[in-house]
Amino acid sequence: MTEGHEYFLSRLKAVGDTELEGPSRLPDWTGRHLLSHVGHNARALARLAHWAATGEPTPMYPSPSTRAEEIEIGAAWPTDRLRGFVVEEQDRLTDALGRIADDRWQAPVVTAQGRTVPASTIPWLRSREVWIHACDLPSGGDFADFPDAFTDALIGDAVERRRTVQSIDLDVLATDRPTRIVESDGERVEGPAADLARWLTRREASPSLRAFRAEPLPELPRWL
Hints:
Elements: H1 2-13, H2 17-21, H3 31-54, H4 66-75, H5 79-98, E1 108-110, E2 116-118, H6 122-134, H7 148-164, E3 170-174, E4 187-191, H8 193-202, E5 210-211
Parallel strand pairs: 3-4
Antiparallel strand pairs: 1-2, 4-5
């Protein structure tokens, strides 16, 4: 999580304020929307950390519309405030996680998607946000920069969600890994791990990816 946050900041430093006024790599979002989302996501996950630490139910968002409302409000802030907001909320999240006692890391909390997960999942949820959204910044990062262990875990996470939630079974083979990351009886797709992770989460197909039972690659709905 910490390494992903630092990577996000390193990519953000390469983006000028004027670029943030323009589109990000996400539909309908400017770079300012993206910064607002990343900061508010840390704040929301800190609520889950408080829930785990104290047992007091504090959902990520008080209502289904709050997430979008927070992002829009933050996107109107001055750019300097948005840049600082990302750092400040990450620090608050780290502090909140530090207040979870050893015997509370398995305490159940509920994500914005309505999933009940142990508190130990919170750092992973944040890791996904900062690493992937670094690639959504204007002139942002690339999945090829991700640590191998994180990329492999991300592939496994995405495949599992698509199988259990979306009923899409995939047999994924990373051609640049010594062992299989995911193996099943589903549609087999192979290629470099970074390209697989990008396709599974962003639905961006690389020429390096190959499907064995169907061409082109299977069409995927949104991941989250």
